[in-house]
Design goal:
Length: 228
């Protein structure tokens, strides 16, 4: 069972889940601050689907859109790619204990995580708007070279910045964002051939290969309907 809602912090959602071993967390460029059994963990940006193990009780999290969490949590995204790491292994012990105590003292872990995110945002300040512009451009299907030029960074600096802020290079981020755009469109009932054409894939076979490579399963399994 999974449920989410927008967080009071712009660019974030809060969620709860009781994994049953069948759901998949798909790559989306996001990072999460997680609560489980009184502990805090950080989930880095994924390059492949993550399948949570069944059992173990309730999880809660605050999910930050691409580019927000590294400054908020004071850790480069590339160090957490495809990983779930205890906050105590990333921060000084006293700081990790303080934030964990804040979350655990709340009436509900979701409210605690939301309060923790707001407190961190107050300390670190607003995210750099350039990162948001980069994500928006790549999500719209702009070529990486054009994004590098328009951002004023150039290709090499864009790549270095993307690794630190998003966890992977701009080409991988563009693939992940295109996957999410395609799945969102397909879930509205648009046939996969049309979805592929409208989201920049060469054809339906190309879309199918990308879905399988990034999620581990074919589109039919993700969408629960035929390929038509």
């Amino acid at each position: 069972m999974y449920a989410e809602r927008p967080a009071r912090l712009p660019g974030a959602v809060v969620w709860t889940s009781t994994p049953d071993g069948t759901g998949r967390v798909l790559p989306d460029g996001c990072m999460d601050l997680l609560w489980h059994d009184g502990r805090l963990l950080v989930a880095g940006p994924d390059t492949r689907a993550h399948v949570p193990e069944a059992g173990g009780g309730r999880w809660a999290g605050v999910r930050f859109r691409p580019g927000i969490a590294p400054a908020l949590l004071a850790v480069p995204a590339r160090e957490l790619r495809d990983r779930r790491v205890d906050l105590a292994d990333l921060w000084p012990a006293s700081a990790a204990r303080r934030l964990t105590g804040l979350v655990n003292a709340a009436p509900d872990p979701v409210r605690g995580l939301e309060a923790a995110a707001l407190a961190r945002a107050a300390d670190t300040g607003p995210p750099d708007p350039l990162d948001r512009r980069i994500v928006t451009a790549l999500a719209a299907g702009c070529p990486v070279a054009a994004v590098a030029d328009e951002s004023g960074l150039g290709t090499r600096r864009l790549h270095r910045r993307a690794l630190a802020v998003f966890g992977y290079g701009p080409k991988t981020l563009a693939r992940v964002l295109r996957l999410q755009r395609a799945l969102a469109l397909a879930r509205t009932g648009v046939p996969l051939a049309d979805t592929a054409a409208r989201t920049g894939y060469a054809d339906q076979a190309h879309l199918t290969r990308e879905v399988r490579e990034l999620t581990g399963v074919p589109p039919t399994e993700l969408l629960g309907r035929p390929l038509g």
